[in-house]
Amino acid sequence: MVGCVAKAPESDIGMALPAFKRKIKRLRAQYSELMRIRMPDNEIGSMLSGIGSDKIFVNFAAAHMELEAKAKYEFLACDNYPDRVDKMLAQMGTLKGLEELRKEIDDKTRDVIGKQQREYYLRHQMDVIQEELGGQSDGSYASQELAELTKRAKEKNWDKRVSDIFDKELSKMSRIPPMSPDYTVQLSYLETLLDLPWDYVVPESFDLREARRVMDADHYGIEKVKDRIIEYLAVMKRQHDKGIERKAQVLCLVGPPGTGKTSICRSVAAAMGRPYRRVALGGLHDEAEIRGHRRTYIGAMPGRIIQEIAKAGASNPVFVLDEIDKVQRNNFTGDPSSALLEVLDPEQNCHFHDNYLGIDYDLSRVFFIATANSLSDIQPALLDRMEIISFSGYVLEEKLQIAQQHLLPRIMKENALNGKTFRIPSNILSNVVNEYTREGGVRQLEKQLSKLVRHRVVEIEQGGKAKVSVSVDELKQVLGLPIHNSESAQRIPREGVVTGLAWTPVGGEILFIESSLSKGKGTITMTGNLGSVMKESATLAFEYLKSNASSFGISSDTISKSNIHIHVPEGATPKDGPSAGITIFVAMVSAFSHRKVKPNVAMTGEITLRGDVTPVGGIKEKILAAKRAGITDIILCHDNRRDIEEIKADYLSGLTFHYIASISEAVPLALVNKKTKNEKK
Hints:
The strands form 5 sheets. The protein has a 7-stranded mixed β-sheet with strand order 11-12-10-9-14-17-18. The protein is α/β, with parallel strands linked by helices. The protein has 27 helices and 18 strands.
């Protein structure tokens, strides 16, 4: 055998050798300690003391030591008991250290589990005690959060209904273990109740002159909007003075982008002394964003209306619902636009129900102002609850004033420039508006002006000699070649070409209606990307002309043997609307009678099959577009006179207006040369 060659005698040799006896004694002591660590019961002691033979004890120890099979085999292969004892003593120290480490780990694990079980047991006892006491929690068990919530609740000025609900929810929270997820949900709910202002309102300012001054300082033009807001403030002031209960009113500002709809709301809040809050509704698709989530899971929260009210810190803020026309409707997450019905209805929003709160909240003191670019995308029921105030696009003169009074000073301040180092003359500013922007608002104008200012900053910082004033050459150098070319009126009389006036979302424009004749069978062809309404106007004009040809000096045979082609240039641009009816009719009369059209004359108006001229919209934008194009005479319906009277006199200088009620009146005003029978009469 390996390591042990001598064979042990049959008798117990350990009894004859004193050295072997000492080793056996030490082995017994160490093995007993090891087994006591592994098996701390009293049975191990009696088991070891019952083994009297040293030889049997050595074999017993070798068999029960936790060693690998290879090590145990070496013990068995060694017949020399003293050597076997030496090998066992060498392994005993290592085994004892491992057992002590294992025992220490087991003790620590047992302590942790015992502490958790003890805490669970105590909390369970506390719940039982509180139930026996009728739900009354002892102050000694209140956590720091409970004490803080209770303190804040005493400072709130809310009605008994909310106070009772808060006390009930607070009592429920006191019985929930802090380690439970429900504890966090309950804590968030109670903090939301405390954050809401409930009956607190900030003092309002009803100084109408100061309100007007603030709005005039921040915004140029939009007088109708300012007048309506002043009316609203005046009514509120009188109701406040007379002690009359007020109902919430909802305004909706509609107009092209960049016309100042959102910024005027901020000015209104400043003028009234109210907090200002804004919610962007563009792309909103989840009804829970308005009404909140139900308080049944972790992460639930109130809707954005309640959240913003809490941030405002008062129950009477100016609340802007921005881009309300871009709310998505009827999807798998609900209909947010329908959820807004309760918010914006003065008869319902005094009891607005948020799913998260579970308590009705009064929104009647909130001044809601919605903004939109188009009314066609707003739900009809929602539109019916709002008072519409239209923002028309700014005209050239207004854009120049806005740029000089607001945009340029702000841009120059942001770029650390002043009037001594940078200036844009009025004619250059007019070129920027006409040739580099085409919009109803002023956002693109602001971007172009920023480019000019930044270019000047670069020149100054590079040490070059920079001119103070911007020139036309510098304008082209910085902004490039003109992007938009405005049409100008024709300078010489031409046959079959008439100047019309059109409204676009970015302002007024002039357009030319061209007509030409060819041999045929009396048909009409229309080109130029025209809409159905505009095509119907052309058909009306052609039918009226055929039935009344003699009144305009035109032979019926000429019409029946000729085809007429009506074209509106810029075919890539869609065109539609009824306001070109009178223009198309005059172009047809000019083509069939071979009479030229007077230069510098433009017209707009809808026609009927009876030959009447009816009013159209967008008169202000159309008139100013005609003035920019060099038009001097404008023909329009007599019912549009009221629109002309609302335009500032400065914008109308140099223009002559001809008001008509019938399309036959437009022919002598627009055509030259030949005279018709009506003219001779």
